[in-house]
UniProtKB/TrEMBL annotation, chain A:
PANTHER family reported in the protein's UniProt record: PADR-FAMILY TRANSCRIPTIONAL REGULATOR, TRANSCRIPTIONAL REGULATOR RV3488
Source organism of the structure: Winogradskya consettensis
InterPro entries xrefs: Metal_resp_DNA-bind_regulator, Tscrpt_reg_PadR_N, WH-like_DNA-bd_sf, WH_DNA-bd_sf
Organism phylogeny: Bacteria, Bacillati, Actinomycetota, Actinomycetes, Micromonosporales
Cited Pfam families: PadR (PF03551)
Protein origin, superkingdom: Bacteria
Domain Transcription regulator PadR N-terminal residues, every copy: 18-89
Signal peptide segment: none
Name the record gives this protein: PadR family transcriptional regulator
UniProtKB/TrEMBL annotation, chain B:
Organismal lineage: Bacteria, Bacillati, Actinomycetota, Actinomycetes, Micromonosporales
Tree of life domain: Bacteria
Protein name in the entry: Uncharacterized protein
Transmembrane regions: 82-100, 150-169
Keywords of the record: Membrane, Transmembrane, Transmembrane helix
Amino acid sequence: MSETHDPQLLKGVLSVLLLHLLAERESYGYEVVQRLQAAGFADVLEGSVYPALTRLQREGRLETRLVPSASGPARKYYRLTAGGHEALAGGLGAWSRHIAAVDAVLSRPLPPSENGD
Amino acid sequence: MPHTITWYDRLRIERLVWSLDQQLYDLPRVQRIATRREVRANLLEAARDVGTREALRGVGGSRRLAEQFLTAEFGDNPRHTWIGAAYAAALTPLLLNFFLAEAANAFQSGVTATDPHATGVFTWSGVSWLQSAVTYTFNDGTATGHGGGWTPLAYLLWLVITVGFGRLWRLRLRRRPAVAPA
């Protein structure tokens, strides 16, 4: 799956996506990008993900630890804090409500167009 | 297939990392260093994975990346800039002193142009509002001077320029907590 995504839509859900991925297992920055791309967000740029991780850390939703790497500099692993788990639960609820509201509108039948198409 | 990182690749990565660093001077020092190290580690990892060109493309350039890091730290609201304030605070006295000194030199040159062997005490009131009076003592055309210091208004102007360039009025009394270094 390699469809592109609306950057504005993606921006709105990036935090929840990151929290969910990191709730599954802790990861370092580039690994998070790889996991996002493997999940179908092929057009997600590292330049968006790294600052988003920093913001979530500043907000107290992520904590970090440095892990030495055999292939280069130490990696900074991110994992959720208790506040991060709360934020994820809240984000999932908001996302569900959002989907339900959008679906409710988009599933309404459209009137036939005037030119008969 | 893993890519080999050459010295040229490392130089390209370091160029981006240090260019980014120069644009993050408004962040606390510890946080700026942590950001620099993290971006470098991730770029090296990405370069090994997809090649340096693609890895650098992925971060979207140092200016954009710096803007996103600053937005992540300070939010979307207009923000102050310490580096701008520092430049203004350093450069304003240099420029102001240069122009005031040139004005005083012009007065001194005027005296010696009138009389190359001038002797006596000559006082110039200085640049209005910005400078105190300058007194030159001439002895056969050779002058020694004193005075010409800044007035309180000049100091106020310095402060206003520093605050203006740094947009320091945007500083909030309650600072956001800084990111703990990993």
